[in-house]
Design a protein that fits this description.
The complex is a heterodimer of chains A (221) and B (211). The longest helix of chain A has 30 residues. With 221 residues, chain A is mostly helical. In chain A, 86% of the residues lie in helices and 0% in strands. Chain A has one domain. Chain B folds into two domains: 78 residues, Rossmann fold (3-Layer(aba) Sandwich); 98 residues, Rossmann fold, CATH 3.40.50. In chain B, the strands form two sheets. A five-stranded parallel β-sheet of chain B has the order 5-6-7-3-8, with helices on both faces. In chain B, helix 2 runs parallel beside helix 4. The radius of gyration of chain B is 18 Å and the shape is globular. Classes of the chains: A mainly alpha (221), B alpha/beta (211). Chain A: Keywords: Cell inner membrane, Cell membrane, Cytochrome c-type biogenesis, Membrane, Transmembrane, Transmembrane helix, Transport. Chain A: Belongs to the CcmB/CycW/HelB family. Chain A: InterPro entries: Cyt_c_biogenesis_CcmB (IPR003544), Cyt_c_CcmB_bac (IPR026031). Chain A: This is Heme exporter protein B.
């Protein structure tokens, strides 16, 4: 357990040390979201209706950006060999990296989605529901993304393969997540979509680290 | 982390490693052909052989990173690993780089740094270290672990004569405490009573019979 926390601590230190890398996905999220009003026109009604959907798609894409380096950097400098040999169990190593990915990417996205939501005209009363959905959604995306990143690790053109692997797997998260965020606008109950979104998260929570651990073992072998 | 009870009881007291008839293929190329060796407490084994003879592959197979295609590797104790890369993050200080190994290991960081003459560099980011200093920092990680079996892949790359002497002293102390090591190297190490294991080059072996 101490090794697990030490690994997260090390990743957070690295993220702060190389702030530009960490900020890149956040800036991508905000810029990407800001492009939609330019393309769709400034109609407040249209933007308010599209707002949650825009935020969900942008968050999904922004989560993909740092995945390429999540394990790649560890493999290249030999740290992964050491982690597999003397660190915690492979699945725990993978889970620690996924947790660090969420803390450095998912959590900032969550905070940035507040100003982006307001900019797109999402009502203040609808924001908590959007944030709740996004919180569960970005956690699932970190888990799915970490799993895919470990599977393509060491493969040639892994960076190209990665989105092709993650995006189809992420569709349930996107569908239920966006549906829960629209509940406020459509005056329906978000309970069903939130339940299903939570189900996605709880399915990913044990399965993704296990699969990723196997991927990491195969990558160093 | 593995506790001592995870390992089988050694057939001979002091035995740390049995490698039995290990064969490894990379793709369809034969890299290791029926390698057998044993290692007891106090041993220092030097792996020799031409480039591409599979020295690093044998170390990776012994460590468990790679599974042998046939044969068996039986370890009777924990191992510490020094790969040919230093595994240091350039943005972190020396102490931060070694923090994880310190948490997992049993030995004190200040002792290890002292023995390798790195104490004055503790708070320096790793990107400012020279390649010899980085190599010593990676070696410090091996010392931290407290594991009896050391697997060292080219530990002396980039080291000056004084540092190699220092490394030799650390290795001798480890052997005196009942540890053992397998080392690949191209320069002579200041070690007494080493055993050596020569790996033949298998480049001439045709692989047609595999298809």
């Amino acid at each position: 357990m101490t090794a697990f926390l030490a690994l997260i601590d090390r990743d957070l230190r690295l993220a702060f040390r190389f702030g530009a890398d960490t900020l890149a996905s956040l800036l991508f999220f905000i810029l990407c979201g800001s492009l939609f009003p330019l393309a769709l026109g400034p109609s407040p009604d249209l933007l308010r209706h599209m707002g949650p959907g825009i935020i969900w798609v942008c968050a999904l894409l922004a989560c993909l950006l740092p995945l390429d380096r999540l394990f790649g950097a560890e493999l290249e400098d030999g740290s992964l060999d050491l982690l597999m040999l003397t660190g915690p169990a492979p699945a725990a190593v993978a889970f620690a990296k996924m947790a660090a990915h969420w803390l450095t990417t998912g959590l900032p996205l969550l905070i940035a989605s507040i100003p982006l939501g307001i900019m797109l005209g999402v009502k203040g009363s609808e924001l908590p529901l959007l944030l709740l959905g996004l919180a569960m959604g970005t956690m699932s995306l970190s888990l799915l993304g970490g799993m895919a990143a470990s599977i393509v690790l060491g493969a040639r053109r892994g960076g190209v393969l990665l989105p092709l692997l993650v995006l189809p797997l992420a569709t349930p998260v996107l569908i239920f997540g966006a549906a829960s965020s629209y509940a406020g606008q459509l005056a329906t109950s978000p309970a069903a979509s939130l339940d299903l979104l939570g189900a996605c998260l709880f399915a990913c929570l044990p399965l993704c680290p296990l699969a990723a651990g196997q991927g990491l073992k195969a990558a160093v072998g | 982390m593995t506790s001592p009870s995870d390992f089988p009881t050694p057939p001979v007291p002091g035995r740390l490693l049995d490698v039995e008839d290990v064969t490894v293929f990379r793709g369809d190329r034969l890299v290791l052909d029926g390698v057998s060796l044993t290692l007891d407490a106090g041993d220092a084994m030097i792996l020799t052989g031409p480039n591409g003879a599979g020295k690093s592959t044998l170390l990776r197979t012994i460590s468990g990173l790679r599974r042998p295609d046939s044969g068996e590797v039986i370890r009777y104790g924990d191992l510490a690993w020094l790969g040919h890369q230093d595994a240091l993050k350039p943005g972190l200080t020396l102490a931060q780089n070694l923090a994880l190994a310190e948490k997992l290991g049993t030995n004190s960081l200040s002792d290890a740094l002292e023995a390798l003459d790195l104490t004055h560099l503790t708070d320096l980011p790793a990107r400012l270290l020279s390649s010899g200093q980085k190599r010593r920092a990676a070696f410090a990680r091996v010392m931290l672990s407290g594991a009896p079996l050391w697997l060292l892949d080219e530990p002396t790359v980039g080291l000056d004569v004084a540092s190699i002497e220092r490394l030799g002293a650390v290795m001798a102390a480890h052997r005196a405490k009942g540890g053992a090591m397998i080392v690949t190297t191209h320069v002579p190490l200041p070690l007494d009573n080493t055993r050596s294991h020569e790996l033949p080059s298998l480049a001439h072996v045709e692989s047609f019979w595999l298809s």
